[in-house]
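Standup notes
- DV: blocked on the single-chain target, sequence here:
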Amino acid sequence: MTEATGRANHGAMSGPIDRLVSVGNVVIDLTATVPALPERGGDVVATDSRLTPGGSFNVLVATSRQGLPAAYGGAHGTGPFGELARSAMLDEGIEILLPPTAGADTGYDVALTDAGGERTFITAVGAEASLTAERLAGIELRAGDAVHVSGYGLLRSPNRDAIADWLLRIPSELTVLVDPGPLGEQIPRDVLEAVRARADWWSCNAREATLATGLADPLEATRALAAAGRGVVVRLGPDGCLVGWAGTLEHVAGFPVRVVDTNGAGDAHVGGFIAALAGGADPVQAARRANACAAIAVSLRGPATAPTKDEVDALLRGSIR
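- DV (later): unblocked, structure below
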């Protein structure tokens, strides 16, 4: 389907992308697989548990594994969780742009995955929420950079104001992709609108699109989000995604897989999408690769399960994993 969505989107026509810089929140995930969430005041025994980096780490890993260099421009702490986060990023070849925040450890979240593969989070904020304008000024963006912003980084000060102001100073030729996340509706409206105005691509799931627009139909929500001229990707789980840009609105089908764990699926989709754009794909081709990234990710247990470029190529060729 093709529909008018207003002025042409800058992001869909931006120049070459050579690196992704994320100012999202890298945190530590304490993941647990449970048969069902416990009732209030109850308890349940996990069948599996892990301690791994998560949050925007998953986006950076997904991007890097698809062949696009990635760098972390967010804050990180000096305690054991900060050390774990830095070690994992370095192992994945992710550049760390800022020094640790003294006197605070990196935060964490508890991610519970039930028997249906759905995940539920509880987040404890740490050093990753300590970004300031002065610290962001230390990030040297270069031609060919794309910037990733997570809604988690816009929930509270000082991150919220620092990132919103910093985005307005980013050169217009650099692509900005924003993922509002599940708590996006809690971001102050003035901040959200300012960030939306600078976003070249807005990537969210159907629930988040509904909350942002008040429209229950994902198609209508995508149309509304794209009306300002930005590129929009609305993830539909196993049904793939909707992608709108430059007057075009398309449904891109997903890939049937056995869902094991949805934790990190959206991040794998975001990373796969921006990496595909960097590789020269058009938005529909990029969305198809992103759908493949997410499909492979949900078929594996754990948060940072984004596939490699070769694995995505194999799925796209119809190979059986």
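- Follow-up: Residues 126 and 151 are 16 Å apart (CA to CA).
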